[in-house]
Amino acid sequence: MTGPIAPSDTALTPLLARETERFEREHPASVAHAARARESLLGGVPMSWMLRWASPVPLVLREARGATVTDIDGHTYADLCLGDTGAMTGHGPAPIVEAITDRYARGATAMLPTEDAAWVGTELTRRFGVDRWQFTVSATDANRFALRMARAITGRPKVLVFSYCYHGTVDEAFITLEDGRPAVREGNVGPAFDVRETTRAVEFNDLDALERELRHEDVAVVLTEPALTNIGIVLPEPGFHDELRRLCTETGTLLLIDETHTLSAGPGGCTQAWGLDPDIVVVGKAIAGGVPTGAFGMRAELAARMLADRDADIEDVGGVGGTLAGNALSMAAARAALGEVLTDDAYAHTIALAGRFADGVRDVLARHGVPWHVTQLGARAEYRFSAEPPRDGGASAAIGHEGLEQFLHLHALNRGVLITPFHNMALMSPATAEADVDRHTAAFDDALGEIAATLG
Ligand code: PMP
Fold first, then answer.
1. According to the UniProt entry, where is the signal peptide (predicted)?
2. Which residue's C-alpha comes closest to atom 4 of ligand 1?
3. What residue numbers bound the domain in which 182 lies?
4. Mutational test site, ligand 1, from 165, 167, 258, max ligand atoms within 8 Å of CB
């Protein structure tokens, strides 16, 4: 495995120090707020991953509209992070604002279904093919409950995932391959069990290993994104999905495609765009415009088997639930988001913009002679620090470079552009404009001038 094409620490340290000093000078209100917030919040933030921003303290949000974010110091940013997909609809689109306002006034949560839920189920079937849907509070929950149901339906104990996958805080997925052997993923917080007992792991695109592991016939379900997006974007090689489908069918294993991020590929994610044939589909984040909602859907025959299972308590305390799941508010938001915002026309706009982003970045890289690669997945695009795109999670992890990422993110932030903390990814919304993309290209050009000088 080769490492990233990156500056030395000696070259990077003063650049990072300069950007950090600039951030602190220009964001006195966010800095002061962080000190106050540490008195009441763990780490000074409402959720600990917010500490991952490249800035010394996170920006404090005053408001976000369309594709722009404004912080409490009064700075405005082009938002290419979009809440790491949660705001892929853009911030506050009128149809969702109206739907939520109306629904909240008429009851947000009552333990009762609304007509909107069945509408959303039908729409998700139209987009993703699978027939029977359930709603959850998050995509994580959707994955968790889908895994439970897959185990209940097949009577098999294990799950198979690809090394360095991420599917939310799903215990069974915190596994990587180290020197070819399964290992608990570094940093796992207070694991409830040894993940190697519940999970088989192979590298993405490694069909031989996949076949070997599935032939044990103890795997209930393969859980995967259609392309990995959480360890950089790793695309499937030609034929990978056909073989994955064939091997699952042959070994009696269910196939769960998690489209939470790859909803960027088109209105029906990669499942529709690439003609995939999953047994179970998970979506989340953007489907209700940022109102917490996840969903999982399965083939009708699996739903029938689940309903017929007298031992599995899906109605009470059987481990599948969430009081606020599928409530009136989230279903009204999802109906508006899917029906009126994340439309075919919207995708034409956002995919073209991601193309503009990728072209702009490629152009800058070529001009500065820096041989990094750029990958586009529909409305999302990303640059990473190697010439060739990695073919699996392990190779992709090896080209990560935290310091370099931090510099690029902080440099962009100081010039009015937000990129997702966990990635070098940019995502487009219906509200994003060419000017937002070009603002990034200009900042990236400036940063690359500095990086290229250090590479010599
Ligand atoms: N699946 C995928 C592919 C994800 O990327 C994520 C989060 N990044 C999740 C599931 C979990 O989403 P959430 O944190 O909203 O539950």
1. none
2. 167
3. 94-341
4. 167
